[in-house]
Write a structure and sequence with these properties.
mainly alpha, 0% strand
């Protein structure tokens, strides 16, 4: 199985935000640590699985669409050869190639069927087969959702295992742990794209903080409306 870090980042970010939203709502409702932990883990695995399935279906649909378009291009090359050759000529003429060089490019590309189809897929349709397997993207999404999304729950796990009750400081601990999760996501992203780890971490922390604040405000508003 091959891990895809973009899907891992996607799952991690969503997992942190949704878990924090549950934590914020639970604090507002003064629920016991056990209930918070149960709700948090239920969200991690249910929502994480849902996201993974959605990513799987989306990746599979894209692959099927590309395969359908590839089959169509192959049919057109087999049955409308001169028209397709002219399309190659038009594509590279727009890129600035002319005269003998243009004809040589057309000759080279159309000499091999696979190269011809690949060129039409990329230049005409903008479709590139990246070799990503739907199962791999789904697993990467769920892994990120669960592993990073659990961080906002860590203070509650400690409280639950210690047999203590919620106190006024628990929300601050949850905010800190959620901030750590966002910063960690940014650091991982920065390492992947070879950018400043600190800068990437802070930018992700800022974006995640805005998303988490919005989730908290909505939850707090609903809590006041219902109560």
């Amino acid at each position: 199985m091959k891990w895809h870090f973009e899907d891992f980042i996607y799952g991690s970010f969503d997992g942190s935000v949704t878990t924090f939203a549950i934590v914020a709502g639970a604090i507002g409702a003064s629920l016991s640590p056990m209930i918070v932990v149960i709700l948090g883990f239920a969200n991690l695995f249910a929502d994480g699985f849902s996201m993974a399935v959605g990513n799987y279906q989306a990746s599979k649909a894209r692959i099927e669409y590309i395969q359908k378009e590839r089959a169509r291009e192959e049919w057109e090359i087999d049955n409308m050869e001169e028209t397709e050759r002219q399309e190659i000529r038009d594509i590279y003429a727009k890129k600035g190639f002319t005269a003998e060089l243009l004809e040589e490019i057309v000759k080279v590309i159309t000499a091999r069927r696979k190269v011809w189809v690949d060129t039409m897929m990329k230049e005409e349709l903008g479709l590139i087969e990246d070799g990503r397997r739907p199962l791999d993207t789904a697993a990467s999404t769920m892994f990120g959702f669960v592993i990073i999304g659990i961080i906002p729950l860590i203070p509650f796990l400690f409280i639950y295992l210690a047999g203590a009750h919620l106190n006024s400081e628990i929300f601050a601990y949850s905010v800190i742990s959620t901030s750590v999760a966002f910063f960690l996501i940014g650091v991982i992203k920065g390492r992947i794209v070879k950018k400043s780890l600190i800068r990437s971490g802070l930018v992700t922390l800022l974006v995640g903080g805005i998303a988490a604040t919005a989730a908290y405000l909505v939850g707090n508003l609903l809590a006041h409306l219902i109560s």
